[in-house]
Amino acid sequence: MVTVMAPATSANLGPGFDFLGLALELYNTVHFTPADEWTVTAEGYGAAQLAGRTDLLVCQAIKRVYAETGHPLSGGKVHLENRIPEVGGLGSSASAIVGGLVAANYCLGEPLSKDQLLALATTLEGHPDNVAPALFGGLVGVLPEPLGGGHTVLKIPFPKDLHVVLAVPHLRVATKEARQLLPAKVTMEEAIFNLAHTGVLVGACFSNRPELLRFAMRDKLHQDRRSVLIPGFHHVLEAAYREGAMGVALSGSGPSIIAFCPGERREAVGEGMVAAFAAHNIKARWLPVAVNNEGYRVL
2-156+293-298 belongs to which CATH class? Predict the structure, then answer.
């Protein structure tokens, strides 16, 4: 049996739409043993809906590795421990995919490299910005290569003195629904705005200048358009900044919101975001989490 802990991830981070992703110390765990038939059990988030199903992303990922490497697989014993809230925006599907790919690859003696696993993960997920940090850890920018189907992954140093606070509302936003709100075309002004702010965001991280994040994390491509699905979204951001956050953004496609702040402001920022959601009749909780710097773990 192999056990893989695959981290939660937060993508986009303001202007870095479909480019930036951050791995977090919050995990879904996959236990896998090849077997003659499939058995799937689960605990934690979504356990009742997942147990007994062999069409899950984690099972698809396992099957894909065996097929890609030419190894037969009759079935497997899979047990899932899900600790990543599945409300949306924290990469639970990417965690399932990476957990399955890594578990299968490990059982076969690791014939596939991380770059090859990233290509398979992107095929299953549809885009690389959540799966890349789950594989490589830390803050990454990921750029699809025009030829060959590969990706360039840039590791970006996360500001060392910043802490992460998540606001997780009791609200479900489907990634597909959130993406349907985005236009097929954007204006030149919007494109230039996001290019400039993404550059400043990446530069602020490399130069360890977190005071730039409040301005760098502004966005004109996706957050405002998706905010219609999240009551009180802008008030939550304002509350986080008022309580000392240095950068705040929609996490992935939402509804979770991620804030970066000094350690002594974590509770104030978290409680402020929860209170802002409550003012719009949305229950929420906040979680302090660390940045994961190495990606998945094989136990």
Answer: alpha beta
